[in-house]
Structures
1.
Amino acid sequence: MVKIGGSLLRSAGDFARAADYIAKFPEPPVVVVSAMKGITDMLLELEKTRSYLLYEEVLHRHIAVARSLGVEDRVSPLLKELEHALTLPKAEWSTDHFASFGERLSATILHAVLEKRGIPARLYIAPIETDSRFGNAEPLRLHHRDELSRGDAVAVVTGFIGRDGEGRYTTVGRGGSDYTATYIGKEIGARKVSLVTDAPGVMTADPKEVEDAEVLPLMSIQEAIEAARAGAKNFHPRTFIPVVEAGNMAVEVRSYSNPGTLITNLYSPPPYKVVTRCGQGSCVVGLAARELVKLGGVALGDYTVKLEIPPRQVHEFLVKPYIKYIK
Ligand code: ASP
Ligand code: MG
C-alpha cells in the first residue's frame, strides 16, 4: 500500500507521474492521497474568509490540472459543492468540511487518471469513520475493509479525512494523511505502507538547518514514534501508532526514485538517529539517546533526550561519527 504526499501533487504532470508509479506495482495497491500542495492551507483560509476570489483560485488550480488530464467533468461537481459551502454557517464542523475538499479533489483526479488509462480502479471518499473531534479526530473503524483488502483493482482513498457517526467530514490533524495511511494499512493487514514524499527518506536532521543531514536507511518503529513526536519531518505525531498495533507491518518513507528509510520492529544502528530543534536546543532520538542524560540531557521518552545545544552541533558530534558505519 502506498501514500502519495501533497508535495508530489502540484501539476497535471505530477498526477501522471503518480499514475505511472502506481501502474508499476505487481498487484493493484491501495493508494492514499493527500491534497495538492498548498491546497489545505487555502481551504482553511477560505473557511475563515469565505472569499470568492480565493475560491476561484482553488477552482482554477484544480480545473487547470483536471482539464489538461482530460478529467474536468469529474472535479466540476466537487467544485460546485465547494462554492455552495461558502454560504454555509460557521460551525464546529465547518473547518473540517472545507478542508475535506482538498483530498476529495486530488483523490478524484488520480482515480480518473487511472481509469482513463484503462487501469481498474475504485474511489473511496473518507471510508474511515472517526469520532467527532473536528481537527483532531480519532479513527474508529474502516468501512469497505474487505473490498479494500481484496486487491483486484487499485483502491484510491482520501487521506487525512474521515466522517463521524453523523456523516460529517472530520480531519485527523495537519499532516495527517500519513496517519490515515498507516491506520488503513493496519486495518487491511498490509505488510508494508510506503509513504512517498518529495524527501528521499527520514533524515538525521532537517536539511534546511543541517546541510550534511543524511537519509537513514533503517529505523525501529519505537524510534520513529518518538522522532515523530519530536517533530521530525513534520510527521503527524500519531503516524506510527497503528504500526505498533499492527504488530508486523513495515513502513517505508521514500521518494519515487529513492528507497528511503525502512521502519520495522527491528533495532539497528546508528545509536543516535534524528536530531530535531527543540526550543533553543535539540531533541536527539535514537537507541542510545538515554545515555545523554549523563551529559545533562533531559529524557523525554525511552529514546528521546533534550539537550541545550543547537541541532547543528549535536548532529556534528553525535550523529555524524556513526553515520559512516551504515553507509
Ligand atoms: N492535506 C493535509 C495537510 O496539508 C494532510 C496531509 O497532507 O498530510 O495537512
Ligand atoms: Mg504531509
2.
Amino acid sequence: MKKYEAIIGLEVHAQMLTDTKIFCGCSTKFGSEPNTQTCPVCTGMPGVLPVLNRKALEFAIRTGLAMNCKIAPYSRFARKNYFYPDLPKGYQISQYELPICEHGYIEIVVDGEKKRIGITRIHMEEDAGKNIHEGDHSLVDLNRTGVPLMEIVSEPDIRSPKEAVEYMKKLRTILRYIGVCDGNMEQGSLRCDANVSVRPVGQEEFGTKVEVKNINSFKFVERALDYEIKRQIKVLEEGGTLVQETRLWDSGAGVTLSMRTKEEAHDYRYFPEPDLVPVTVDEKWTEDIRATLPELPDAKRERFISEYGLPEYDADLLTSERALADWYEEAVKSGGQPKAVSNWMMGELMRLLNEANASIEDCPVKPAQLAGMLKLIDKGTISGKIAKTVFEEMYKTGKDAETIVNEKGLVQITDENAILKTVDEVLASNPKEVERYKNGEEKLIGFFVGQVMKLTKGKANPKAVNELLRKRLKEQ
Ligand code: ADP
Ligand code: ZN
Ligand code: MG
C-alpha cells in the first residue's frame, strides 16, 4: 500500500496560430532574423496603443468551447508588472481576474478508465521576447514579444505523472484538431509548468505545493514529476517540512532545483490595462464559432469503434491526429477493409513515415492506393508477404500497387504445376532432410516451405506450397 498520494495541476502555455501578434500587425513567423518582426507597439515605445487581434480572441473562444468551458460575455486585460530584459514595456498584458474562459474539462483515459480533468480557466496574454546569452554578453530578440498565448490552467485533479502526460497529450491533440496551436513542444509553442504536492493517503487537505518550471517535452513532464514527488515524500519521511517554492527542472541532471521561495515571490502589482477596452463577446458570435468546430478527438474515437468495429487501441492511435484519421477514413471509403487498413497504417505506413521523419500530410502513398493494394491481396494476386515489398515501392515511387506488381512481375504463383516444379527441385536437392522428415521430424516442413519461397522469390502462394509439399513427401 502506498502511503502518499500526489496532487498535480498543470499550467500550459499554448502559442496561437495567428498570422500576426496579439496587439499589433507584426508577423508571428518562427525562425526569422532577430528583431525583424517588431514595431513601436511590441517594442513598447512611449505613446503607442495596443489593439486586440480579433483572431486571437476567436481562437481563445474556440479553445474554450472545445474544452467545455463557459465563455465570459465580459472579460478584461490587466498589466502584470515585472522587470526583465525581454519585456520591453516593464509589464506583460495578460488576463487576470476576468479571463475569457472558465469552468471546463477534458477527458483522459488512464489504464482503460476514463477520467475528467477540470479546466479552471483559459486566458489570453502576450509572450515575452528571448534573451540570448553569448560569452560575456547577452542579446535580446523581440520577434516573439507580443505573440499571442493562451494559458490553460487545470484543476488539481491529476494524481500521477502518467495522468499528467495523458492530460498534456489530450490537450495537444485538441489544440491541433481545432487549428489554434501547432503543439510543437521543441519550438516552444506548447510549454508546461507543473504544480505538485503530496499528502498522506486518506488526508483531505492538500499538501504544500511546488511549481516546477521549464518542462518542454512529454518525457520531461513524467520525469520531472516523478523526481519531484519522490523528493517531497523523502522530505516528509525524514520529518522535514516542505516550503512553497518555484523549482526549475534541470533535464541534463534529471533533478529539480530551487529557484525562489514564496517569500521571494514577485508581487506583480496587477491592475486593469487602461489602454484596452474590456472584451465583450455576444452569444451569437460564440455560437457561430461553435458551429465551425470539427468533430473532436473523443467523439471521433467513439465513432471509429462503433462504425468500423476497431479495437480501442487502433481507434486511439488513428484519431490522435486529425490528418491521420482523415487519411484512414478515405482509405476505407475507397474500399479498404477497416481493420486491414488500420493494420497497414499502424504497421508499415507508420514505420516508413517514422524512418523518413515525415508526417501523414507528406505521405507519398494516397489512401486510395493502399485500398487498391489491399484488393490485390484479397484477390490473391499478391501474398501478404510480397505486399510489404510492394508497399515499400509504392512509398518510394508513389506508383499504384498494380503498376508495381506488373512492372516487377510480382504476381503470386498459384499455378499448381509451376509450384510443383519448384517443390520437386527442393526435395531432390535436399535428400537428407527428406529422409529425416520421413523418420518423423515433421517440423522440417517449415524448412522446405522456406526453400520453395526462396526460389520463387516469395511469389508462390504459401498455402498451395504447403499442401503440395505434404502431398509429394507422402508419395516419396
Ligand atoms: P497560485 O495562486 O500559486 O497561482 P493557483 O491556486 O492559482 O495557485 O493554482 C495554480 C495551479 O496549481 C493550478 O493548476 C492548480 O490546479 C494547481 N494547484 C493548486 N493547489 C495545488 C496543490 N496543493 N497541489 C498541486 N497543485 C495545486
Ligand atoms: Zn509589433
Ligand atoms: Mg493562480
3.
Amino acid sequence: MKRDFLRLGDFSSDEHRALFHRARELKAKRRLGEAVRTLEGRSLLLLFEKASTRTRISFEAAIGQLGGNAITLPTADSQIARGETLEDTARVASRYVDAIMFRTHGDDRLRAFARAATVPVINGLSDGGHPVQVLADLFTMAEKLGEVEGKTVAFVGDCASNMALSFCEAAPIFGFDLRLAAPKGYRPPTAALGRARVTSDPEEAVAGADVVITDVFVSMGQEKEAASRMKALAGYQVNEQLLGKAHGNAIVLHCLPAHRGEEITAGVIDGPHSAIFDEAENRLHVQKALLEHLILRR
Ligand code: CP
Ligand code: NVA
C-alpha cells in the first residue's frame, strides 16, 4: 500500500526519528560533497495551485541531487484549469511518476487527490497545514537546541495559519510545550488546539521561550482580508523588544516569505537569534529523507 504524507500524524514517532536521522546523514554528505543517488530513475511531480519559491526549489533540488527528476506543473497551466477533475489528474500522473507533491487550498482537495493517486502524495502546503515546513522547523530546533522534547515554543501572530495548525499537531507528537499568542478570531479551532495554551498577550507567551516563531499576517488566498488582518494583528509583531523576554539562547523561526516590518522586524530576521535561513536550507535535507522514505519505503 502506498503511503502519503498529508499531515505530521501520518508518520509514527519512530518514523519521524528515522527521518531526522537520515536527514542529518544526507546533510553531512552534502557538506562533504559526497553524491547520494538513491532515487536514480525516479520522478516527482510538483503540482502547484499557489505560488512558491522554497518548496519548488528545494523539492526540485532534492530529487535531482538524489538522481531523479522533477516535473513542476502550476495547475493554472494544466487541464485542471479547463475542468479536468483532480481525481483524473491524480490517476494519470500516478502512471508517470513515483510521488506527487501537491500545494493546494482546501484540505478536502488534498485528500481527494491523495485518494485517487496510486503513488505517495505529499502535502506541500494547504489551508490546514504545512507539514513539510514544520518537519524542517523541528529538525532545525533539534540541531540548534540539542532536542525538541521538553522545549517551549511561542507562536505569535496569526495562530490560525497553516503553520500554526501544523505546530499544534506537532506539539504532542514531538513532546514540546506550545504557547500561542493571538487575538480572538486568529486562533485555531478548539479541536485543533491539542495541548497548546492560548493568550492574547505576546509577552506572556514569549516569556522564557526556547523558540519564537511567527508567520505572515496575510497568507496566500487571504489577500481580500489584508486590511482587517493587518489591523487585528498589529500588536503581535516579533521584534527585538518582544524577543528580549525569551530565553537568552532562544532561536527565531519563520517559514518565509517574511514581510519585514509587519509580522517580524528586519533586525530579528537578520539578528543573532535567527535560525531562519538554516531552517530554509533544512527543507532540502529533510525532504530528501522524506522522498526516500516514501518512494523506497525505507
Ligand atoms: N516556506 C515555504 O513553503 O515557502 P514557499 O511558499 O516559497 O514555497
Ligand atoms: N501561511 C503562509 C505560509 C507560506 C509558506 C501562507 O499560506 O501563505
